[in-house]
Every structure is written in structure tokens, then in C-alpha cells.
Task: structure prediction
Amino acid sequence: MYRPPTSRSNRSFYLVAMSAGLLLALSMYTACYPVGVSIQTKTRVNMHGGVGVGNRMHGLRTQQRFNTPPPRHSARGSGFMPRRSPSHTDLDMSDFEVHRRTYKLFATQNPDGEVDLRAKAVSFEVDEAEKVGVDLSAELEHHGEMRKGQIAKNGFRYIILKNPVPAGRFEAHLQMHVGSIEEAEDEQGVAHIVEHVTFLGSDKRSILFGTGSESNAYTDFHHTVYHINCPLVSQGTVALPPNTKLLPLALDALREIAFEAKMLTSRIEKERLAVLSELSMMTNMEYRMTTQEICELHAETILPKRFPIGDEATIRKVHPDKVRAFYKRFYHSDRADLFIVGDVDLDETESLIKQVFEPVPPSPTYLARQAMKIGALAGLKDYNETLEKSSRF
Result:
């Protein structure tokens, strides 16, 4: 029969013995099962002027999870760690394993004790595809309910996918092929400011308020995306009568955002403050860890010097004319892709897209490329071929 210790000395000895036993058990467990670190990262910059907290941050939207893998004999997962794969082998205590959604990185320690995150990088998705015999070079089969096209006049591209679920709704994404990597050294953060100014400065977007629609925008390294989730018809608001078709209004709003933004100085100054507010909320451990990871993985590229949130000093002093010049330089119809998915009619939607976006004037670069194509078809000498011949000895 167990009897608790009575005297103070006996109680002290009992506590010391219990502590030693726990430490011994913990050391034996960690010796058998190495500590695992799981990090999942999704790069995304939100817009709206609002600020995300916790794992939802502007600049880099991250999810970082730390945990210890369960014992081998356990039939239950840890809740956070991905299921063990054949390559998830035991490592020495001096090693640790980093799991990402796209890449599996093996970080090893060199003799000096420094961790080299770039020791080895293997594409996890490619490996998994090869295991099941998927040919990644093959083209995807054409979807029967999808239609894609391009407006010849200005190069505007679109893809429509009919999807009846949920019924009576659609989602439109306008993707501009311009992101933070397009910024010059004295423009860091301008792409993000332009996203704010164009999106929040749209008058036509405000017409959709109260209709059950949702709209948002974000900037990343390579793209700026504006998206609207909307019912097909209005139920009736102050600005719109019942049964008003909302797809034409949504497309009008996207056209204004991308190609007809006013870029007022007052709006630029207002969004400058909003971006600075976002930046001030990102000085936390999660953001610093994620940026460091990107710096290690992409050290040879410009990405570590062009984070979408921008540079604070540049954001504070950049002139409104430089913001307008950036918008004018990159926001053209041939740099845009429109994606519409929802309970829509393909013919009607395609006709509406052409009606809304065909009047957008083409960019000079698009006209120049078209002229070169026409010249090549007419039998004119190709410029690159002529240059190659003239450079031969």
C-alpha cells in the first residue's frame, strides 16, 4: 500500500527522485524519436486596407507549425505533422527535417555547427507524380465546360468555366501580370500601393455593395489579382432594383480597376498610410522566419530584395507621380487574364466579356508584337535571323 512521505526531508527526496525519473524518460524518448519541424508557407499579400493578425499577415500569409512526431507504434497522427512517407526516415539529433507543401528540404549541420538550409532541395510534387506514372509534360485534357479566348484587338485573354455549384453565383478573377519583381530599386512597395489605390478607389465596385457580393485583391511577387464573388442577380438594394444582372456590373468594375483607375493624389496618400500600417503589423517572428526562408531558397534571384509589402523608407517618400507612372507602365490589356467560374452561360458570358473589354486600348508593345507577326507572315526577314547572320565571322 502506497504511503506518501511525511517528513519534509522525505518529501524533498521524493520530488527529486520523480524529477530525475521524468528527465530520464524524456531523454530516452527524444533519443528514439527525433524532433520534427513542419513549416507550410503560402505567399500572399492581402489588400483592403485591413490588417491580418496571427497566421494571416499582409506581405506573407504564413502558417507555421511546430511539433514532435508521435512514436512509431502509435496509430494516431500528431494532428499537425503530415503522414510519414518512405523518405521520412530517422535523423540524428543534429539534423532536422523541414516539410513544405511543394518542396521537401533536408537541412543538415556541417562540422562547424551551422545549419545549411540549401544543402539539398527535392521537388516533392514531382517525386510523387513520378511514383504514380504521371507525365507532367503532357497537356491537360480539355474541359468540356470550359471556354478560353483572346480579344485580337488588344490581347486581353479570358477563360470561362461553367460550374452550377453553388447555383446562381459566379466568381471573377482578373489577374494582372505585374508584381513586386517589376519594381525598380526606388519603387519597392509601389506595386502594393497601386493595388490599394485601384481597388479601393473604384466607384463601380461600390455599386455591388449590399448585393451579397464579396471582393478583394492581393499582390505577390509576380501578379496582382482582383476578384469578385457575386450572385447572378440582385435581390434589390438602394442603388439597384431587384433582378438586376450583376455579371455586367462586376466586369465593369474590374475594367475600371485595371484600366480606368483615376489614381488621385488624395487616394494615393490615403493608401500610403494603409500600407505603412500593414507593414508595422508584420514585425513578428513568423514573418521574419518566412522571409528568411525565402531569402535562403531564392538567394540567386531578385525575390529577397522585392518582398510585396515593400520598403518602409521608399513607401514614405515615393512621389504620387511615380505611383501613377508604374500603373501606366504595366496595367495593359495584354498583361491581363480574366477567369470566370460559376453558374453562367458560356456564350452569353463570352459575348459580355468582349463587349466590356474590347474597347480597352491596346498597349504600344502589343501593337509592335502584332506588327512583327504580320511582317513574318508576309515573308519579311526575321529580325533575329538577320542579327544572327550579321554576327557570324
